[in-house]
Design a protein that fits this description.
heterodimer; A: mainly alpha; 57% helix; 3% strand; B: alpha+beta; 5-stranded antiparallel sheet; two-stranded antiparallel ribbon
Chain lengths: 190, 256
């Protein structure tokens, strides 16, 4: 599972890079809700509405930009079309049904019509479920996609992480407090 | 060369030995181990590290390092760093707290990846497929190459020795990994026109000259007779420099 996530993440990182151009266009004209300024290529409008809520819950706007400010939903939609096998695409489509199924059984409403705390509660249930699941799960998938698209975005690089345009000489031991957070580069580590 | 057939060379140019196209080698890798190190949470790094660490081959060097289930060996490349935003955050699965924690460096980690030698095997070979032609009407290349018992036995220790080192060095949560590796992924292709003293069993002589046509030099990686476990580019360059030096001397003597 972990290894699979790592592979997925590296795929997503590449996908994120490819759509950087359209992403900055999105950032300049981002409105908080409805009327999409772009046309989904993999998900339908209802699914996009769910993913929008999920992305916002996973990485909300705080005093820094969140997932929606970074345009991750468009990246995820494009990545799902271009980067995954037919089998994986079918798993994603099947997995997406969980959101409305759980909200209908608990609240007799669709997921996007719930109050934010109820949406978060269902997402947490799915998160817990994913930890008990061997193999792919819609929560792990969406989280990996949101996290990777967000942390490789311009919005995150410039506002949440440390962006160093010219890294130059290597200093192997500095105080973390002198930079404050992760460098904006790949998924970290080596 | 396989494609250059004539009455003199019916099996391909310079192929009197039937060794042309045989003994394809590449390095097998993409496995090893990684581990986490406690402490140093307030330390970080900056800039671009020019290289990682390298651990030279330490197996089958002498009687005391002799291995039972494989010959030759492997080296390690690796490095240390801190986990990034793709790690699991224990405190929260999502939300503002998750976002804040994920933007901070995680544990210090160290990874070791092994690069192993592939032995030369006669039946690991490339051949021309005359029945499937490309768009220029040329025969396509059939590549039939696989790892064999020695490589697979070596791969077990390529993981376990890395884990043992990290463990002894004090790393925690040490895990081995094997991302799988097919011949070709190492992009260190070697062999197919091996050099040797005997024209009956090799394609090139010690100056990279085709045995039966001394005015033809082959100076890419195909002359290699064994793959060792190191990156081969410097060796190619050294042999090429020697071949060129020989060619100039022979030209000046009027021998070429």
């Amino acid at each position: 599972m972990k290894r699979r996530d790592a592979i997925k993440t590296s795929v997503v990182v590449m996908g994120g890079a490819m759509t950087m151009g359209s992403l900055s266009a999105l950032l300049s004209g981002c409105s908080p809700e409805p009327s999409l300024s772009w046309t989904p290529v993999f998900f339908d409008k209802d699914q996009i509405a769910i993913i929008t809520r999920v992305a916002d819950l996973i990485i909300p706007k705080t005093d820094t930009p969140g997932a929606l400010d970074a345009g991750v939903v468009e990246v995820i939609d494009q990545a799902c079309k271009d980067l995954f096998s037919a089998e994986e695409q079918a798993q994603v489509q099947e997995g997406m049904k969980a959101f409305n199924a759980m909200s209908q059984s608990a609240h007799q409403k669709n997921y996007v019509d719930l109050k934010e705390e109820d949406q978060a509660a269902i997402l947490q249930k799915l998160a817990d479920e994913s930890k008990e699941t061997e193999g792919p799960h819609i929560f792990s998938f969406m989280k990996d996609m949101v996290v990777a698209s967000f942390f490789t975005s311009e919005a995150a690089a410039m506002n949440v992480l440390n962006y160093d345009p010219i890294p130059t000489r290597y200093e192997g031991c500095i105080e973390l407090s002198s930079v404050g957070s992760l460098w904006a580069e790949g998924s970290g580590s080596f | 060369m396989l494609n250059s057939k004539s009455d003199r060379f019916p099996n391909g140019f310079g192929n009197d030995s039937d060794q042309l196209g045989r003994n394809v080698m590449d390095h097998h890798f993409r496995l090893g181990a990684y581990g986490q190190l406690d402490g140093y949470e307030d330390q970080y790094f900056k800039g671009r590290r020019p290289n990682g660490i390298y651990i030279p081959r330490f197996q089958n060097l002498d009687a005391s390092t002799k291995r039972k289930d494989y010959i030759r060996g492997f080296g390690y490349q690796g490095g240390g760093g801190r986990e990034g935003w793709s790690r699991n955050i224990a405190e929260a699965d999502f939300g503002a707290g998750f976002k804040e924690a994920a933007a901070q460096p995680g544990n210090w980690t160290m990874g070791l990846m092994a690069f192993g030698e592939c032995l030369p095997y006669e039946d690991n070979r490339v051949t021309l497929n005359e029945s499937v032609k490309d768009k220029y009407g040329q025969p396509t290349l059939t590549m039939d190459v696989e790892w064999k018992e020695n490589e697979y036995n070596m791969r077990k220790e390529m993981m376990s020795a890395a884990a043992e080192m990290l463990d002894k060095a004090g790393f925690k949560n040490v895990e081995t990994y094997d991302r799988g590796c097919n011949p070709g992924l190492g992009i260190h292709e070697m062999g197919t026109a091996r050099m040797g003293r005997d024209p009956k069993t090799s394609v090139l002589n010690k100056y990279n000259q085709v045995h039966a046509a001394k005015n033809v030099f082959v100076t890419d990686g195909s002359f290699m007779t064994s793959a060792a476990c190191q990156n081969p580019s410097l060796t190619y360059m050294a042999f090429t420099a020697r071949a060129v030096d020989h060619a100039v001397k022979e030209l000046n003597k009027g021998n070429l």
